[in-house]
Automatic annotation (TrEMBL):
The keyword Transmembrane applies. The lineage of its organism: Bacteria, Pseudomonadati, Bacteroidota, Flavobacteriia, Flavobacteriales. Residues 111-204 form the CAAX prenyl protease 2/Lysostaphin resistance protein A-like domain. It comes from Chryseobacterium pennae. GO terms for molecular function: endopeptidase activity. The keyword Manganese does not apply. This is CAAX prenyl protease 2/Lysostaphin resistance protein A-like domain-containing protein.
Length: 263
């Protein structure tokens, strides 16, 4: 078995095991831990950590000498990640302050789960493992690496839809959101903290203000979100050009990376 076939086989097998482990046991683990701890937030975090074990084992089989923190792209600067995310999402924050009211009641455990916990673990699963591993350690390019991960990322948010129109809108928005988070993650030297904090802050603003019941949003909700996205893209491009850094995503790395493209 060649190295490439072995790599793809182990990678796919590891993700499939994780997927069904998560599908069939996540809720059971969560309920069990909640009964012991009496905390939804603790149960959510620990259930994610336990169900991540197949992914961690997969990465250690593929890269026995690399630390998990590096393979999950968590060894970069969290401060830089937060700074870019906070500045970039200021249009959302300011716009929502102007056009929306703060929600009357806040369940802090649910807020933690729907913002920080979900953002952290979803970015590890989809951006770092499912997309990042393929792009960083194979010759697959940007578009070929993101397809499966972004489709699955969009699929897990479809429960928010009430009708076919909302389903299509939510699928399109979350799929494109995955592409955006991945691009920023790659262009920031594979700093997953940028994507984590972007995901967290965007979810947080959406939750604490009465914007919309789901991610399909409305005129002003989406307007300020897109303004933030454009600002973040502009900031990343400006910084790369100012520092004369090479862009990770170019025509040479869209589908299959050319040999001179280094990840």
């Amino acid at each position: 078995m060649s190295k490439n076939i072995r790599f793809i086989f182990i990678f796919i097998l590891g993700f499939v095991i994780y997927y069904f482990f998560d599908l069939f046991y996540f809720k059971s683990i969560q309920y069990f831990i909640k009964d012991l701890s009496h905390s939804k937030a603790i149960a959510h975090v620990l259930a994610y950590i336990i169900t991540l074990i197949p992914l961690m084992i997969t990465l250690k089989i593929l890269f026995p000498k690399k630390p998990i923190i590096n393979l999950f792209s968590l060894d970069r600067s969290a401060i830089k990640g937060f700074s870019l995310a906070f500045l970039g999402t200021l249009p959302m924050l300011i716009g929502y302050i102007i056009h929306f009211t703060i929600t009357d009641t806040v369940n802090y455990e649910s807020l933690f789960i729907n913002t920080l916990s979900s953002a952290f673990f979803e970015e590890i699963i989809f951006r770092a493992f499912l997309i990042g591993t393929l792009y960083r350690f194979t010759r697959l390019g940007f578009l070929s690496s993101i397809l499966l991960g972004s489709l699955l990322f969009a699929q897990i948010h479809l429960y928010q839809s009430q009708n076919m129109t909302e389903l299509i809108e939510i699928f399109a928005i979350t799929f494109l959101g995955s592409v955006f988070f991945t691009w920023v993650y790659f262009e920031q030297n594979f700093n997953l903290w940028v994507a984590i904090f972007l995901h967290f802050l965007m979810n947080l603003y959406w939750e604490i203000f009465n914007v919309s019941e789901n991610v399909s949003g409305n005129l002003f909700g989406n307007l300020y979100k897109f303004l933030s996205i454009f600002l973040i893209i502009g900031m990343v491009v400006y910084h790369k050009k100012k520092s004369k850094s090479t862009f990770q995503i170019t025509w040479k790395s869209l589908f299959i990376k050319s040999k001179e493209v280094q990840s």
